[in-house]
Specification:
The complex is a heterodimer of chains A (about 260) and B (about 650). Chain A is of the alpha/beta class. Chain A has helices at about 50-60, 80-85, 105-110, 120-125, 130-145, 165-175, 195-210, 220-225, 245-250, 250-260, and strands spanning about 10-20, 25-35, 40-45, 65-70, 75, 90, 180-185, 215, 230-235, 240-245. Classes of the chains: A alpha/beta (about 260), B alpha/beta (about 650). Chains A and B meet through helix 5 and helix 7 of A and loops of B.
Chain lengths: ~260, ~650
């Protein structure tokens, strides 16, 4: 498989007309949208609108019955999540999915997994190349720790951390894989105002410093409108709005969906 | 007397670079690893930076501001500026833009060296009001890619300019550094001041170098010592320890990774020499008590038993006084089982000398640390004296005095006012652009007024009572020293801050700030639900706990015949924590009584009435600088007072 290089502003990922059903339940119906390289793209919508299903389709966890997904010029039909990860799609989860007994450092280190080349044997012997490689990875992870300002919890088991910090560690682990496209599933759910503001800043910084394209799902409309370049709105599995925040804010369908006017 | 060849810091650093080039001078933790800079690195880096600034137009006499947390690179700004004849001015990095603007303008700062983007933003937000600023240099490049302002330069960029300049003018730097003499100004330090605008204290090289040299000799500090520098660089104490004494003795200064990692870093470094304001020691003790309460019952029992042993004989053992063999044995055992591991956890295992300064410390806290075998001593001084007036001797440390005058210092108590006056090598030159205040503080005879009320004990030790202007009298003539009572209150882990009122009244009342962590932890364990600080502070259960603390203080006061009338009859728990951002505390966390009295006037009035409830509206500042209004109904509680008692012993 070969991928084309995508320049900033060009389409990085295009979702074409996809539909996804679980038995008789249609989670997504005929949705098309694209994500351009370098942008912060948001998917919003009420509960059960199909947002997480959409992310799951993008990173290969679900396989839509209909439609195509084109990533960096390569159209795919079936893909496994680890293949998506290898191609540069990273993600975080709605419910924090970290190794609770491991330290922050080790958790983020697991994000480097795909970049490690030493064999199991040489890693066990821990001499020469394996050691050198680990040092390089550690340096990269330390950069992330510095970036996310989590030095103070470097050695703390993540199970002991407050929720807001766990979310930050999860972001760190996703970043460790150096993704080109980062999918964030409700990065700010359950946070207080201060934590939300911190997280917003980190998302914008990631986008700015590493040039990572970001696609995020979020409930908090205020936050989304502030940090996103473009917003897509889903409701009952269908797309009801798409555009820059101002357009979406003015869209009557969106207002109805959120205020319950249409239901 | 000062050695003429080594009368300035650039000269001292050059000597260190020659005599001990490979000895670690500064360390900082970055990317999880301690990075070391030797004295040679310090000299080379200062040289590159200084010349870079000269290349950018810095001239002799120009002021260079330093804003940021403790970083080796920021300490080098001192020597770099001083070497080329400029005047370094350190600022508190958590100061709001308005405070920083005042100092930048007052000192007519030309160059500002800051740590990171946050400080750059702060300076840029006020740059239009600070016409004197020519260049802003930032150390951390993160987040700075999109800043295109021509006045911004990165630290590395400036050093690169300096190296090019150096290649063309190889003798310039050392020649410039040689021009300075001891009587020249070394630095301008702004006092946070509990009243009014900050004042710029001019300190000469003689002041700082001598205060450093004499204190190094007094404590026998050597290049093998280590300190952790984590207190604001703008505080004179940090300047004395981390710059002056370090360049004298050649010891290493270790900068923590960031403010949150200080305790971990402290443990990793294991300093031999440590300094902290009382608030930090008190905070550590509170933390320790919280964690002990979470420990298993056996550990709790063991802890309390051996702390009891330490209380009984720990201090005597450290000071070499006679102690029974059995107690010695128990203390040794306690050291093995409890004190040793405890000190190790705190990072205090290697400490030879620890100081507390900046404010008086509760005697109970003080004795606690000493009883563990930590040689904690009090130091008395202020910015105007380079933090060097009194130091306690190792063999005679008392919790209620700050020790005899340090070598080279003299002390006098003003008979009429009870104010402490001093003469010392560190006595400042004057307040910058403030003749009037200089005259008020520093008499022509050389005696400097401290503003502290104190007494000299018969054997020549100085005892500080309170700020002279704060000491008052109750209607019945009882001495009212608010800080003395507040310190007693603050000893309790539940109380983080207290403000007492009583001057000119017939009784004493108090504002209490609860310690969110300690009280929150306590409430959680008892299943008391609360939504916010304000909510927790108003709980009846919390009031009951605080009442116990207040009454314990009253019992203590009842023992002292002079203070028996100054017991606290009523108190309230403030719905918000007093904060430096709201101007209620100074940056060194001292209470600003006047501002608090104004802002909370309705509460004070209610405390001295019969009301059991009072309303308050007060402005508060959020972390991000936005302001909000706090509205609350505050309960007022009565506390028991006690008749005069005789001491139990």
């Amino acid at each position: 498989m070969t991928h084309q290089e995508v320049k900033p502003g060009e389409v990085l990922l295009a979702v074409n007309d996809i539909s996804l059903s679980f038995g008789a339940v249609r989670a997504i119906s005929d949705v098309s949208f694209d994500i351009k390289k370098g942008e912060v793209r948001a998917i919003i919508g009420p509960n059960g609108a199909g947002k997480t299903s959409m992310l799951n389709c993008i990173n290969g966890f679900y396989h839509p019955q209909q439609g195509t997904i084109t990533y960096k010029g390569q159209t795919r039909s079936q893909m496994k999540p680890f293949e998506a990860a290898a191609q540069g799609i990273g993600r975080t989860f709605q419910n924090v999915a970290l190794f609770r007994g491991m330290s922050t450092l080790d958790n983020i280190m697991t994000g480097r997994n795909l970049k490690m080349k030493s064999s199991l044997l040489s890693s066990m012997i821990w001499w020469g190349a394996a050691q050198k490689e680990e040092l390089q990875h550690r340096r990269f992870v330390e950069d992330i720790i510095d970036f996310l300002e989590i030095e103070a919890i470097r050695k703390t088991p993540v199970g002991r951390l407050p929720y807001g910090l766990q979310k930050r560690v999860e972001l760190g682990r996703a970043l460790a894989a150096e993704p080109e496209l980062l999918l964030l599933d409700e990065p700010m759910a359950g946070m207080n105002l201060e934590e939300k503001e911190d997280m917003c800043r980190f998302i914008l910084d990631v986008n700015d410093e590493f040039g990572t394209t970001i696609c995020l799902i979020e409930h908090d409309m205020g936050v989304v409108m502030d940090i996103s370049d473009r917003v897509m709105v889903l409701d009952y599995g269908g797309k009801i709005g798409d555009g820059v925040p101002e357009e979406v804010r003015a869209n009557q369908n969106v207002i109805d969906a959120y205020l319950g006017g249409g239901h | 007397m000062t050695n003429k060849d080594l009368d300035t810091f650039p000269k001292l650093i050059r000597r260190n670079a020659t005599e001990r080039p490979d000895v670690p001078a500064y360390r900082e933790k970055e990317y999880g690893i301690w990075q070391t800079y030797t004295w040679k690195d310090v000299y080379d880096n200062s040289r590159a930076l200084g010349l870079g600034m000269v290349d950018l137009g810095l001239q002799r006499g120009d002021a260079v501001a330093i804003i940021g947390s403790n970083r080796p690179q920021l300490y080098w700004v001192f020597s770099a500026s001083q070497a080329v004849g400029a005047l370094p001015v350190p600022l508190y990095q958590d100061g709001v833009a308005e405070e920083i603007q005042y100092v930048l303008n007052h000192a007519e700062v030309k160059f500002v060296v800051v740590e990171d983007q946050e400080q750059v933003d702060k300076v840029l937000s006020i740059i239009d009001e600070c016409p004197s600023i020519r260049t802003v240099i930032y150390k951390e490049t993160r987040g700075m890619r999109h800043y295109k302002q021509p006045i911004l330069k990165s630290y590395d960029e400036v050093q690169e300019l300096g190296r090019v300049y150096d290649a063309k003018h190889p003798d310039f730097y050392d020649a410039e550094a040689e021009k300075a003499v001891g009587s020249d100004l070394a630095t301008l330090m702004y006092t946070s001041g509990t009243t009014g605008r900050p004042k710029g204290v001019m300190l000469s090289f003689n002041n700082m170098v001598d205060a450093g040299r004499l204190s190094v000799e007094f404590e026998n500090l050597t290049e093998k010592d280590k300190v952790l520098s984590y207190l604001p660089m703008a505080w004179v104490g940090d300047h004395l320890f981390s710059y002056s004494q370090a360049s004298q003795a050649g010891f290493s200064v270790n900068c923590p990774e960031n403010a949150e990692t200080v305790l971990t870093d402290l443990r990793e470094i294991g300093p031999t020499y440590y300094f902290a304001p009382p608030a930090i020691f008190e905070n550590m003790l509170t933390q320790m008590m919280i964690r002990i309460e979470d420990a298993s019952p056996i550990k709790q029992k063991m802890f309390h038993y051996f702390i009891g042993v330490a209380k009984r004989c720990g201090v005597q053992i450290m000071e070499g006084k006679p102690v029974s063999l059995w107690d010695r044995f128990l203390y040794k055992l306690g050291d093995f089982l409890v004190f040793g591991p405890l000190k190790n956890t705190l990072g205090f295992s290697q400490i030879r000398v620890a100081y507390t300064a900046g404010a008086p410390m509760g005697p109970e806290v003080f004795k606690f640390y000493r009883s563990l075998g930590i040689n904690l001593k009090q130091l008395y001084g202020q910015t105007e004296s380079c933090a060097y007036v009194c130091i306690q001797n190792d063999t005679d440390v008392r919790p209620d005095t700050v020790g005899p005058p340090a070598p080279g210092c003299e002390i006098m108590i003003d008979d009429a006012t009870g104010e402490v006056l001093f003469k010392s090598p560190g006595a400042f030159v004057g307040y910058y652009k403030n003749e009037e205040a200089t005259k008020e503080t520093k008499a022509d005879s050389g005696w400097v007024h401290t503003g502290d009320a104190g007494i000299m004990t018969d054997d020549g030790q100085l005892k500080i009572i309170d700020r002279a202007k704060d000491v008052g009298k109750l209607v019945d003539g009882t001495l009212f020293a608010p800080q003395y009572i507040e310190n007693k209150l603050k000893f309790f882990p539940f109380i983080s801050e207290a403000v007492c009122h009583g001057d000119g009244k017939d009784t004493v009342t108090a504002f209490i700030n609860i310690d969110m962590e300690a009280v929150g932890n306590w409430a959680e364990r008892r299943g008391i639900a609360y939504g916010s600080y304000q909510d927790l502070a108003s709980r009846d259960e919390v009031y009951a706990q605080i009442k116990e603390c207040v009454e314990q203080v009253n019992r203590d006061l009842a023992i002292d015949s002079e203070l028996v009338g100054a017991q606290i009859s009523r108190f309230l728990v403030l719905p918000k924590a007093l904060d430096a951002d709201d101007g209620e505390l100074t940056r060194t966390r001292k209470v600003r009584r006047r501002i608090i009295a104004e802002r909370y006037a309705p509460l004070i009035e209610a405390l001295f009435s019969d009301a059991n409830m009072a309303k308050i509206e007060s402005e508060m500042t959020f972390e991000d600088g936005r302001k909000g209004i706090l509205k609350a109904d505050v309960k007022i509680a009565d506390s028991e007072t006690y008749p005069a008692m005789r001491a139990a012993s």
